[in-house]
Design goal:
The complex is a heterodimer. By secondary structure, chain A is mostly beta strands. Helix content of chain B is 0%, strand content 49%. Classes of the chains: A mainly beta, B mainly beta. Chains A and B meet through strand 4, strand 5, strand 9 and strand 10 of A and strand 5 of B.
Chain lengths: 112, 115
């Protein structure tokens, strides 16, 4: 069993839709939860991060962490064609060299 | 302030040759992480280095792979006697060493193709 599971998609939605991306994990020691966006042939860029449980909002993006269910989500409101990319969740254990454990990524396509 | 730089961006090697991948961290960063991304997979941690020290190499294959981060110059990931299964995108991320795991900034990657 992988430490972090993520549906690879692809997910195709019309412009303006609300997108929900999810990851589940098995290691209860994870304390940092991050979402990265990766455009084709580029490096990942950090979108959102959350420490421990709770919600965090930044513009059109909302990240949620439910540690009791070992489940994290990223919501994108008013999705745009420029949001088309692969979204990777990543997690890390506090104080353990900060190495990141990634999901496989979900490919998102937003069509006009 | 330049971002993380990796070179070459694309590298083609025949089976049995050596591959050297370079990573120049952001200015002021003394910590480097290397990750590998196989086709249709997420990134997998390989090694974590500080200047002149390997801190965590738990993700490195036991044979043929090595990494260094000298006092001067870029970090280098070396793969000896490459095989087709080494074909992947290799990303490095640099960090100032403070601020936790969110403070990793990724380079554009080196895409290695083994023929």
């Amino acid at each position: 069993q992988k430490e972090v599971e993520q549906d690879p998609g692809p997910l195709s939605v019309p412009e303006g839709a609300i997108v929900s991306l999810n990851c589940t994990y098995s290691n209860s020691a994870f304390q940092y939860f991050m979402w990265y966006r990766q455009y084709s042939r580029k490096g990942p860029e950090l979108l959102m991060y959350t420490y421990s449980s709770g919600n965090k909002e930044d513009g059109r993006f909302t990240a949620q962490v439910d540690k009791s269910s070992k489940y994290i989500s990223l919501f994108i409101r008013d999705s745009q064609p420029s949001d088309s990319a692969t979204y990777l969740c990543a997690m890390s254990v506090l104080g353990n060299t900060d190495k990141l454990i990634f999901g496989t990524g979900t490919r998102l396509q937003v069509f006009p | 302030n330049a971002g993380v730089m990796q070179n070459p961006r694309h590298l083609v090697r025949r089976r049995g040759q050596e591959a050297r991948l370079r990573c120049s961290p952001m200015k002021g960063h003394s910590h480097v992480y290397w990750y590998r991304q196989l086709p249709e997979e997420g990134l997998k941690f390989m090694v974590y280095l500080q200047k002149e020290n390997i801190i965590d190499e738990s993700g490195m294959p036991k044979e043929r792979f090595s990494a260094e981060f000298p006092k001067e110059g870029p970090s280098i990931l070396r793969i000896q006697q490459v095989v087709r299964g080494d074909s992947a995108a290799y990303f490095c991320a640099s960090s100032p060493g403070t601020g936790g795991p969110k403070e990793q900034y990724f380079g554009p990657g080196t895409r290695l193709t083994v023929t």
